[in-house]
Backbone:
């Protein structure tokens, strides 16, 4: 009997030990393709939701009003440690779609100019600090403003005689180190003191946008597309779409997907994964450098359509329907076309196990249209197969 019992006990201990070894301690240890999810429709928006409204520090605003009346302050972007701020401003010789960046202390003291006149900065929402406040990143391209040429020799001013009245001379502008610029929008990084400005990407012909830092600061995520793809979306008054990618601080890129994504990428709070959205689907990617990285696609088309049918049934008055229904949205099981059935336009990943998604109808008219905004919740957990030997 003892000879029979001892092997059984040993086997039981081994199974328990293996089970504990295979059980992930936290979601960062679970590959993207091993995540299970639960969907909850029409929830309250997440707390601490970042606002798109442009804001400026009062101290810096005052500095522009009193000392720089010819420059138009657009907004300020504060460093997480509260010591530095980037002033985004327009000048008289710059188009309204571009701007420049200066570095300030948060108490309103000017530190230095960051961007040279040859570089035009674009996309205010892509100007971002790393979490440790050691670096900041933005998107820029070659400035279209004409550069001053030297005065021809024959047009040089006459020498001033000693008896003549002194003529004021122009104040020399700030000196900038040589910087590579490109015809399309590239990613630039700079240190917290406004030095070591350099391009992180150099793929002229691609347009980069939607920058976001990894919470641990090891890399950036972004979208990028060709100029023709950008122009096609712009002609339809749609927001830009691009292929998601990771960009290391050394400039090495890793393409995550070859399909155009419509929602800016977001990092998981532990920096282990990146997510973006393709119409009604969510793409999740492991952000590690290992060749064993995985990806997953959460398909929510039918789920969101059913949720829209239930949502509109609860609205007061008649059921909301379009005069010109889109046949791609028609589904007899869900009651046909629904105006509240829209693509995923934004992701918020504030907790490793919870991701909020916003669906909405957006068109870039003047003024822009942003309607039918609804928030939903996707909760993550390890698949049961991960917990088994």
Residues:
């Amino acid at each position: 009997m003892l000879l029979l019992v001892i092997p059984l006990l040993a086997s039981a201990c081994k199974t328990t030990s293996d089970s504990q070894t295979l059980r992930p301690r936290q979601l960062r240890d679970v590959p993207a393709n091993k995540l299970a999810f639960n969907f909850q429709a029409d929830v309250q928006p997440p707390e601490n939701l970042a606002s798109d409204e442009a804001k400026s520090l009062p101290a810096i605003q005052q500095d522009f009003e009193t000392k720089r009346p010819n420059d138009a302050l657009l907004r300020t972007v504060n460093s997480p440690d509260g010591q530095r701020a980037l002033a985004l401003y327009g000048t008289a010789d710059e188009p309204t779609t571009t701007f420049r960046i200066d570095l300030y202390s948060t108490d309103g003291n000017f530190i230095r100019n960051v961007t040279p006149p040859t570089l035009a900065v674009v996309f205010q929402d892509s100007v971002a600090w790393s979490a440790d406040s050691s670096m900041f990143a933005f998107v820029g391209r070659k400035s279209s403003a004409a550069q001053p040429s030297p005065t021809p020799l024959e047009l040089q001013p006459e020498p001033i005689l000693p008896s003549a009245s002194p003529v004021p001379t122009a104040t020399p502008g700030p000196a900038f180190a040589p910087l590579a610029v490109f015809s399309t929008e590239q990613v630039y990084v700079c240190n917290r003191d406004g030095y070591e400005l350099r391009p992180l990407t150099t793929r002229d012909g691609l347009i980069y946008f939607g920058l976001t830092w990894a919470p641990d600061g090891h890399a950036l995520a972004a979208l990028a597309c060709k100029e023709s793809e950008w122009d096609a979306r712009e002609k339809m008054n749609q927001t830009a779409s691009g292929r998601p990618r990771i960009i290391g601080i050394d400039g090495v890129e890793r393409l995550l997907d070859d399909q155009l994504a419509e929602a800016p990428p977001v990092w998981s709070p532990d920096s282990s994964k990146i997510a973006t959205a393709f119409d009604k689907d969510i793409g999740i990617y492991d952000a590690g450098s290992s060749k064993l990285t995985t990806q997953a696609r959460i398909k929510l088309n039918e789920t969101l359509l059913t949720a829209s049918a239930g949502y509109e049934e609860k609205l007061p008055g008649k059921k909301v329907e379009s005069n010109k229904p889109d046949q791609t949205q028609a589904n007899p099981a869900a009651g046909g076309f629904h105006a509240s059935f829209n693509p995923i336009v934004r992701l918020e990943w504030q907790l490793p196990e919870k991701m909020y998604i916003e669906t909405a109808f957006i068109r870039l008219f003047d003024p822009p249209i942003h309607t039918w905004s609804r928030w939903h919740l996707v909760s993550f957990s390890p698949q049961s197969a991960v917990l088994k030997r």
Summary: The chain is about 15% helix and 35% strand. The CA atoms of residues 216 and 324 lie 47 Å apart. Confidence is low (pLDDT under 50) at residues 14-21, 148-161, 167-171, 322-330. Helices lie at 2-22, 58-67, 227-235, 301-313.
